[in-house]
Amino acid sequence: MFQKLFGFGQRSRRVVIDGLYERIVAASRQPVFYAHWGVPDTPLGRFEMIALHMILFLRRVRNEDGAAVREVAQEVTDVFFADVEHAIRELGIGDMGVPKRIKKLARMFYGRAAAYGEAIDADDAEALAAAVARNIRPDEEDWAGAQPLARYALDAAASLENQKAERLIAADISFPDAERER
Questions:
Q1: How far is the C-alpha of 134 from the C-alpha of 140, rounded, in Å?
Q2: CA 56, CA 176: separation in Å to the nearest integer?
Q3: Distance of CA 140 to CAs 30, 40, 134, 136, Å?
């Protein structure tokens, strides 16, 4: 379907999927998240930020019609979880422990997708700030980074809504500059 719609061959399709995921990861690595808002620059902190951006992307395309959009969303999700698996292995987790950790991280991801999505749908910055604080910095009461991160996520969700699905699934996706929330 993807090939018919866009005229892409299998190799080009892989380039588009990888390009889309790379843009999602690049958005999640904005220095302000780690240097100013206190997101831990650790494997788990980076997972949290990539997960947030994946959730924003998936939320944007969830109601789009067409098999091509669903296929791209599924493939990007598959690349995300393959990346998570690779990161787990890089941390030295053996083959026996990987499936258990992937299952736990998948539950975390889909739990966050529900909580963040509900707050974004309600345009509720307070609920979103509470959810990101609970998930990203559970060790820190009154985490100062929660409010700007929630505002950023709401801005990103609004920005993505204004981007055409055809462009998004062609890896022409853009996220706001988080530095503006500082």
A1: 9
A2: 12
A3: 21, 11, 9, 9
| Amino acid, res. 134 | R
Q: Are 39 and 33 in contact (CB under 8 A)?
A: yes
SS3 154: helix
> For residues 15 and 170, what is the distance between their CA atoms, to the nearest angstrom?
10
- Torsion-angle region of residue 40: left (phi > 0), alpha (psi -120 to 50) or beta? beta
Both tokens assigned to 161:
């809504």
Residue with tokens 């709401």: 154
Degrees, nearest 5: CA angle 179-60-39: 35
DSSP class of 163? S
pLDDT tens digits for range 3-53: 545 555 555 888 999 999 999 999 999 999 999 999 999 999 999 999 999
Measured CA to CA, the distance from residue 45 to residue 1 in angstroms comes to 36
- What is the distance between the alpha carbons of residues 112 and 132, in angstroms, rounded to a whole number? 8
Please write down the long-range contacts of 79-86, taking CB distance under 8 Å and 24 or more positions apart: 79/17, 79/18, 79/21, 80/21, 80/24, 80/50, 80/54, 81/106, 83/21, 83/25, 83/50, 84/47
Enter the pTM of the model: 0.89
